[in-house]
Amino acid sequence: MKRQDDFEKRRQHLANLSDEQLYEKFWALAGEIVQPMLDLGYKNTTPSIERSILLRMGFSSLEVKPIVEGVISKGLMGKGCGNVVWRLAEKKGISVREAGLLLADGKEWDTVPTLFN
User: To 5 degrees, how large is the angle CA 34–CA 39–CA 43?
Assistant: First the structure.
């Protein structure tokens, strides 16, 4: 069985494009392919992902657990745990580490919902 070579027919819409135009078209199409995955990442998160983010922010696993649980209990998971800690630090004028430790110790949870108004 011989393969039908239809390369010339399939590339007709690209034949008259310059290298620069082909480059731009490639990246535009790549962006269209990746956009749904980016949207999922922006709109969806899990406790595991949020723990990972807080660990990368320098918190220990023992400090991370109460922060994630607190964010879940306040219904702010969609905002992101790291974002909650960062916004608290900005509002209080303290470091991110200090803000996270306050939350891990059960303090400032009444302030947290007001950070997103």
Answer: 155
- Per the prediction, the chain carries an average pLDDT of 92
The pLDDT score that the predictor gives to residue 9 is 85
Distances (CA, A) of 95 to 79, 91, 98, 106: 19, 10, 5, 17
Q: How far apart are CA 37 and CA 60, in angstroms?
A: 29
What whole-number distance in Å separates Cα of residue 6 and Cα of residue 56? Answer: 50
Strands (E) across the chain are located at none
Q: What's the pTM?
A: 0.66
The C-alpha atoms of residue 54 and residue 100 are separated, in whole angstroms, by 9
Judged against a pLDDT cut of 80, whether residue 41 lies above it is answered with no
